[in-house]
Specification:
Blueprint (H helix, E strand, L loop, with lengths): L4 H29 L8 H17 L9 E3 L2 E5 L9 E10 L2 E4 L11 H10 L3 E6 L2 E4 L16 E9 L6 E9 L5 E9 L5 H13 L3 H25 L19 H24 L4 H31 L8 H24 L4 H22 L4 H37 L14 H57 L6 H32 L7 E4 H11 L1 H6 L3 E5 L6 E4 L1 H18 L5 E8 L3 E9 L8 H4 L18 H11 L3 E7 L2 E9 L2
Parallel strand pairs: 2-4, 11-13
Antiparallel strand pairs: 1-2, 3-4, 3-9, 5-6, 5-9, 7-8, 10-12, 13-14, 14-16, 15-16
Helix pairs in contact: 1-4, 1-5, 4-7, 6-7, 9-10, 10-11, 11-12, 12-17, 13-15, 15-17
């Protein structure tokens, strides 16, 4: 999908169209909120101008110092400041109660009397527009005054002075009032110009076109915004990928320094903006202005798309820094510093670490003194420079400390048997590269030794399994023939005794062979487990019941100490039974007669511990490590029928089920501890 050129082209085409929808909606919103562009063009602007002037008149008082007076009427004169209205000449006179405002200069009406000002407006050539007693008298403008009446409604307060009859004291009182259109007298004349403002033309045309679709516009804008985000994300993912090529596909444009492309692109955009500004200030070129705006929009988009595309390619190809002027300069500086560093390293490489540290410390102090001397007249700059140098030196120290820490961590991993991780030699500083290489070699040696050990153990297991199988076949025949001989009528008691011995030894050899295979599988982990929820108390009681006869033969008393609640662990019931069975079998063979067997089940919130304790019949002059080895028995005389594999099998099976198996020997006390996670 990301290699699809058609989909990429469609994305490039759709983005400016969707962006245009958002831009047009924003322009419409701004223009719609600007009263200069609401509704009809000239008529609305002219009414807004009169409203603004009327508002100024309302709030003018003695503090603004009126320019003229006519009896009780105070007259203020303003210059024309409404350049956005498309008129050549304009004169107005607005009267509100005993105040008036006008833009008629005194050289036109020297007396500046109200009636003379009215006569001047009436006699001046141009269209007339008057509002008197809330009614319009106009030569050209057709406006429903009710739509604009609120624009002439102003809430304000003024100060009235009254005099007390008794004490002859002047009293000042604030009076709140509200104006209305009926209270204004407006006289004006104007001449419209033939000049067409391109910007005004464009905005008003935009209002006329978009206005019918205003409701749809509020739905299209979020949809367009979401689609732009999706398309931009898709382009970021797909740019640079070409079908049949694994690497990012770059071209000659992607090799031009990025700063040059930015300067050319920004310059082109700046020139286009100047052209648009010149066209907008010219006259009678409205259609050309609109064409120029559309052309400029797409040209700017193409420039931005080119810069965006090459920027993404460079980032993906990891060539952004190399293809910038700043990057090239930085690379040249880095090469120069590397050469200097190589010369310095070759000089100090033969030194011992203590001499190296002393040498670098001296160099650091010399540099600090040189910087201080350079900025001796400007100590503040000297402090800043020395601080920067010290921070850089501190960075170098931290970098080397990090190397040492990584080496220490790797040595710990090797100590714990984790030899899979390797050190990245190139990321170390020159002082530690040889050490990192040595550690990697040691790690590889350990890993090879472990692999050889695993291979050797696997071969041993296979050998034991194969030999056991080869022994088992003739052994089965021996057992069968012994059974057949026993069925014959043999009168010789000596022969019968030999047959009994032969039968016992053959069965013991069969059990030994089976135990050997099972021990081999358990130690190698070649056992398929079916983990399930097991009630420990129930398992112990069941196994104890099965060994009841054997324990009675030795007069062994079993004492179980456990809570009455259900205690569960996760284990394989078959192999867990074998673990307990081996331990009980061991007790039945080696425990001292007329003694007790203690079984304690101790629990907490997380673990279950099973302690099995008994008194040995023989002296246990053997360590726990030796006792756990295969074919080693506590009975040194080997008079019992044990194989010496039971404890080893139990330990291996326990650990395969995520448990712990430990043996403790205290004099003649033999203690086994099993530990599992409680569920």
């Amino acid at each position: 999908m990301r290699n699809n050129k058609l989909l990429r082209t469609i994305s490039y085409v759709l983005i400016p169209i969707l962006a245009a929808i958002i831009i047009v909606a924003c322009l419409y919103s701004v223009a719609g909120n600007n009263r200069n562009y609401k509704g009809q063009r000239f008529e609305n602007q002219y009414m807004n101008m009169l409203q603004d002037i009327s508002g100024k008149l309302i709030y003018m008082d003695d503090q603004n110092s009126p320019n003229y007076t006519d009896n009780e009427t105070k007259i203020w004169r303003l210059d024309n400041s409404y350049s956005y209205i498309n008129i050549n000449t304009n004169y107005y006179l607005i009267i509100y109660k005993n105040k008036a405002i006008t833009n008629i200069p005194s050289y036109r009406v020297p007396s500046m009397k109200i009636e003379e000002l009215k006569k001047f407006i009436q006699d001046t050539d141009g269209n007339k527009f008057n509002i008197i007693n809330g009614k319009i008298n106009s030569d050209e403008i057709d406006i429903n005054l009710d739509d604009y009446a609120n624009g002439f409604r102003f809430s304000y307060y003024h100060t009235e002075h009254t005099r007390s009859d008794e004490n002859n004291i002047e009293i000042t009182e604030k009076v709140n009032e509200q104006s209305s259109i009926e209270q204004f007298e407006i006289y004006s004349t104007y001449q419209r110009t033939g000049y067409v403002d391109n910007y005004e033309y464009f905005v008003n045309m935009l209002l006329d076109i978009v206005s019918p679709y205003e409701d749809i516009m509020y739905i299209l804008v979020p949809i367009a915004g979401a689609l732009i985000i999706i398309l931009v994300i898709y382009l970021i993912m797909s740019i640079g990928h070409t079908k049949g090529k694994n690497n990012i596909d770059t071209n000659d444009l992607d090799k031009i320094p990025l700063e040059i492309l930015l300067i050319v692109g920004i310059s082109a955009i700046f020139i286009l903006l100047i052209i648009i500004r010149d066209i907008s200030s010219s006259s009678n070129y409205s259609k050309m202005y609109i064409s120029a705006i559309i052309t400029e929009y797409f040209v700017i988009y193409i420039i931005e798309a080119i810069i965006f595309t090459t920027l993404i390619k460079r980032i993906k190809a990891n060539t952004l820094v190399q293809t910038t002027l700043i990057g090239k300069v930085a690379n040249a500086i880095q090469k120069f510093m590397d050469k200097g560093n190589n010369v310095l390293n070759s000089f100090v490489s033969s030194m011992k670490y203590t001499k190296k540290l002393t040498f670098y410390t001296v160099i650091y102090l010399i540099i600090m003194l040189i910087v201080y001397a350079i900025f001796i007249d400007e100590p503040a700059f000297g402090v800043i420079a020395d601080t920067c140098i010290t921070m850089y030196v501190f960075y170098l120290i931290i970098k080397r400390a990090n190397c040492f820490e990584r080496i220490e961590k790797q040595l710990k991993n090797i100590y714990e048997g984790n030899t899979e991780e390797k050190l990245d030699v190139e990321s170390f500083t020159s002082e530690f590269k040889n050490t990192a290489n040595y550690i990697n070699d040691i790690s590889n040696g350990f890993e090879n030794a472990v692999e050889e050990g695993i291979k050797s153990e696997r071969l041993k297991t296979e050998l034991i399994t194969n030999v056991s199988h080869d022994i088992k076949t003739p052994l089965t025949s021996i057992i069968n023939y012994v059974d057949l001989i026993k069925q014959e009528n043999i009168d010789n008691e000596k022969v019968k005794e030999y047959i009994e011995i032969l039968e016992g030894k053959s069965h013991r050899l069969k059990r030994l062979t089976e135990d050997l295979v099972e021990a081999s599988k358990a130690s190698s982990g070649n056992v398929k487990l079916n983990l399930e929820k097991i009630n420990v108390i129930e398992l112990i009681n069941q196994t104890t019941g099965e060994f009841e006869d054997k324990f009675k033969q030795r007069n062994l008393e079993v004492i179980i100490k456990a809570s009455e609640e259900e205690i569960n662990i996760e284990a394989d019931s078959r192999y867990m039974y074998r673990v307990i069975e081996n331990l009980f079998s061991n007790i039945s063979k080696y425990a001292a007669s007329n003694t007790r067997i203690y079984i304690d089940v101790i629990t907490d919130e997380k673990t279950v511990k099973i302690w099995i304790k008994n008194i040995s019949a023989q002296k246990l002059n053997i360590s726990t490590d030796e006792l756990m080895q295969r074919f080693v028995r506590g009975d040194k005389s080997r008079t019992t029928e044990g194989s010496g594999l039971g404890l080893s099998i139990s330990k291996s099976l326990t650990e395969l089920q995520n448990g712990k198996f430990e043996i403790q020997i205290d004099g003649d006390l033999f203690k086994v501890e099993l530990e599992f996670e409680r569920i």
